[in-house]
Amino acid sequence: MSDTRRRVKVYTLNEDRQWDDRGTGHVSSTYVERLKGISLLVRAESDGSLLLESKINPNTAYQKQQDTLIVWSEAENYDLALSFQEKAGCDEIWEKICQVQGKDPSLEITQDPIDESEEERFEEMPETSHLVELPACELARLEEIADLVTSVLSSPIRREKLALALISEGYIKKLLQLFRTCEDLENREGLHHLYEIVRGVLFLNKATLFEVMFSDDCIMDVVGCLEYDPALVQPKRHREFLTKTAKFKEVIPIRDSELRQKIHQTYRVQYIQDIILPTPSVFEENFLSTLTSFIFFNKVEIVSMLQEDEKFLTEVFAQLTDEATEDAKRRELVNFFKEFCAFSQTLQPQNRDAFFKTLANLGILPALEIIMGMDDLQVRAAATDIFSYLVEFSPSMVREFVMQEPQQADDDDVLLINLVIKQMICDSDPELGGAVQLMGLLRTLIDPENMLAPTNKTEKTEFLSFFYKYCMHVLTAPLLANTAEERKDSLLRSRLSLYFPNISIYSFSPAPSDNFQTAQLLSLILELLTFCVEHHTYHIKNYIMNKDLLRRVLVLMNSKHTFLALCALRFMRRIIGLKDEYYNRYIIKGNLFEPVINALLDNGTRYNLLNSAIIELFEFIKVEDIKSLIAHIVDNFYKALESIEYVQTFKGLKGRYEQEKARQSRSLTRYRREARSLEDDEEMWFNDEEDEDDADAGVEKRVEEDFPESYGKFMGAKKVKDSEDKENLPKRTPSGSFKFTFSHSAGTTNGSSSTSSKPASSASPAAPNGSSAKVASLPAAPMVKAGLVGLVDYPDDEDEEDEEEDDEEEELSPRKRPRLGS
Fold this sequence. Notes:
The strands form 2 sheets. Strands 4-3-2-1-7-6-5 form a 7-stranded antiparallel β-sheet, with helices on one face. A two-stranded antiparallel ribbon has the order 8-9. It starts with 5 loop residues before the first strand and ends in an 11-residue tail after the last helix. Among the domains are: about 5-100, Roll (PH-domain like), CATH 2.30.29.30; about 130-285, no CATH class; about 580-680, no CATH class. About 60% of the residues lie in helices and about 5% in strands. The chain has about 800 residues and is of the alpha+beta class.
């Protein structure tokens, strides 16, 4: 069998009866030795890993839906689906499945798995007996039909046979005609039987039946049958709600009749699943999996059809951004886009990317900028939801847009991010539900972790510079206003009113943190600032220093709301956790531990979260041995803290402090002792030099008296040697350091001359006594300066010189024996 590959998306049905995307790959049908049969294999297109390996079991029921879907169940509570990109690929794999199972590819369903007893019972039956024999569709036999439908639900093979029978005989439409008759006759008993029949047919979980039942001419009668639940005294009025209460609003007329029909069908089927049908029991939870799939893939098709209609989307955006559009109309347009984006979450990743790129090209972000500045709360809430979809899809796309805004607008207040911040601050919800959502979006936008795209390496620096220049002052305005000194209150609050004209719901009094809603808002702002401390570097550091922000934040340690005081403490803890001496000097200079220690002392003996958090802060300083902070705390606050003995933290800080002082004291003493020792050593060295000079003078005097001729020759050679050594000594520079200079002979600068100097140096080890050394050293001085090396030995003089050298060696000190120039 040939190996055919087609592009597919693999889905699995989770516990919540929702389809989970397992990935995109290519499907093939091939023989797998391990599974001993033809199997479906899906390999990921990204890395070639195996997404699916499923043997085509002859008894597994496969369903083909909507031309591009194949759905089946591998085991109890484990449903799988393959969504094909092309219909041709779906048809080809379907033919392979039918070929293995020996089925007709023209059918859209194969046989369900059956147990052994049923297999034995039916394997001998002729083909003509495969269908269930249905009673005549008459009023008198409704009870018999209801019993039949209910009885087959426990058997997969009988469900399959009943479904085939219902389809082949056009039984569904006959039943719905009986429903209309019963309703006209007000036959309540017959209507109750029809409720059981229709509910049982839905639980057959067959897509082919759904396509008949949910067609335009049948679906309302199906809803009507489900109104007559025998457990209810009075029937529900679902049809009245669907036809009169629920109105289909076309913000822009949809010209495609097929698309319009698909939207109506999806809404009504969703209503049946969510509202009409009771929650399935444990034994029925798998009965409606195909219904869930039907809705899911309908939504995919709707989004795809709308996305392909460029004229429709262009017209929607034109009206959305048109200043002449009425508020009610704009509200409908925004709600349409909100639902449109929600539907898009069902798309495959590559289709979802194309969808959002289409919206971006059409101008969704400039439109949101206009909408989020409106006074209508419903419109702003819907716009926030749309914005969250866009941020989740591509934070970089949003950042790129907002960084271009200052070039197009002179007013910072109309920037999209500032509008988001203002909406967060002005949230009228007492629980600040919208503010929490917006804070999460801001956090995503300023998170450096998603700014690491290699295609744009400067995104992080550019965006953070933009944010701190144009937006940070808007974010911190409520915090600064609530922690301002009295003499600055009026100025800051007047500035705040410029940024937030609708902020009258807050009371910025001298003790603003007593207002619960304001305290909640400040805690959100502090959470965002704490995130900045952790993930931003010099941007937030410069801002904290310039605004003296930590001092302002620590004012909130006095709040009666413990959660707000903890937020302020957490902000300081993150700063100290960086172990940055720049921050440490700022804290010491501002004496910023004082409000923390006051809060600890005011808390008294209460053992609560505030107490533990403050002690953990000091414990961290002790464990990490941050010396500058330890010294500051002990020097300034230890008297107030030494009475706290239920933890050893503060005694430990004192111990660290004393250890450091002792270490510094030892270092200072060692330095002084080493300095005195150096002076003594220098003095002893100079004394030794004087003694050596006196000894040398005595020796030279005796040598001159005993060997007057040899002494003259020796002193001549010694002077030449001393002059050479003096040239090679390091010379002290004006800065006090030593500069080394080397005197090289001409012979050492080229290869030929250096080789000629070798006999001179080789003569010394060959001499049995000092005579050869003396003779060699005497002409060395003029030859080094002249750059020529010459050596002449006179054999007649050797004996005389040997005697002289022997006498010399007896008198000269070994330490003062002349050394070879080489």
